DNA sequence: AAAATGTGCGCC
DNA sequence: AAAGGGCGCACATTTT
């Protein structure tokens, strides 16, 4: 079934419809998988018309995944581009979609779309693991639906609580272009400590002022400042923290992103090469923890918040098929279960795992990695192989087949030059991490897709951050939603990895305010 | 004047 | 406690 300029139920004649939202609503009763060019262009309008669909195939997202899988990273991914490639025609660049139109005029007709779909399905079938890639495309497409729905529904955001918090920390809202009182006072303190005016936002001025005071700094990063004994340090650190809050999540930000008690960020599905989501506005994935108290459930409602603890090491255990690690990953606290192998020290187990996944080399890492290599050889080898592939300029893939971008042409020059070793190691750390992070991201997508289907009427996913979800629902639904989260996590693990001793538990808590979730 | 780059830090 | 991988964004500064 294709939604384009026309609606085309498979096996039936395409038909033009006057009211597309109504037609989609009617056909949705058959629970089809809607195929459309780009969820971002089509779905927001349907949502505004009060129509939701349960499944879709997003041609653009699937095309991007396939192109990368075929080693053609970065080529235009639109349905039109895919159609042009099929016919050897000039391939148009991707352009921003046409918002506020249900079906953008430049999208393909139904028959052309069917052609593109058939091509994509054939390319998937030709892969060595078509089942996995089908799951990847389905999960990515479900993500697109969820992202649009979350932007539409918004996360509860109490503007009055936000204003009170800002006022408490910064002073009253200043007139445009001015610093809030407490920020201004801290700026004065910094200048006073140096004995002359210094702009605390200027790295240059700060480094110079510290140098004149006999303190040499290579940067003004807070961890470096904390080592310095100087009266300007304390007010400067306080200034930096509050200035960030003011400019990043202050009143101006709220004016732009909060409406009617809802924060509506724009999510970019697959915006990170690893398959994690990004945001193109609103900074939804970087909300400071201090702001969480502003996220409050509506009257008579609650927020069910859940995160997948220790997701990445669990995913590694499942992927690598490492029996020892998988056994530990069957426990609630993976690191405690590993501690015995690392002299009974949970922290050592954690450092070893993180160093293996991120390529850490400092501190105790080498010693602990040697233990890991001995005790969990398959898991160790799995990430080592990924790192080696990166160092040699090869591509790596996630469990379901998301493919890392190739190294840049600059990298290839660099790697044969005098600093080549460093460039190669950097690339190795990237690919080492990619296989784990990307698989964790697709587990999270699969989990959310399942969860979305399990949620009762009236419950809505309102936030997603890498391995954490938030559902806004009625107080009396909290228990059912919590059970749905646990079930979705278990189903996602089985969907990706089949029979495995690895567990990826998600424990949900129902809270009135996000701040109470941890 | 506008675009590009650098810095720093929030989140996972 | 940080490390170490991934981002987005604002502000300052430099380049065009």
From TrEMBL:
Protein's name according to its UniProt entry: DNA-directed DNA polymerase
Keywords: DNA replication
GO MF term list: DNA binding; DNA-directed DNA polymerase activity
Catalytic activity, reaction form: DNA(n) + a 2'-deoxyribonucleoside 5'-triphosphate = DNA(n+1) + diphosphate
Enzyme Commission code(s) on record: 2.7.7.7
Record-annotated DNA-directed DNA polymerase family A palm domain positions: 288-477
Biological process terms in GO annotation: DNA-templated DNA replication; double-strand break repair
Keyword Transcription found: no
One Pfam family here: DNA_pol_A
Keyword Glycosyltransferase among UniProt keywords: no
Enzyme class, spelled out: transferase
InterPro entries: DNA-dir_DNA_pol_A_palm_dom, DNA/RNA_pol_sf, DNA_polymerase_A
SUPFAM superfamilies tied to this protein: DNA/RNA polymerases (SSF56672)
Gene3D superfamilies, A to Z: 3.30.70.370, 5' to 3' exonuclease, C-terminal subdomain
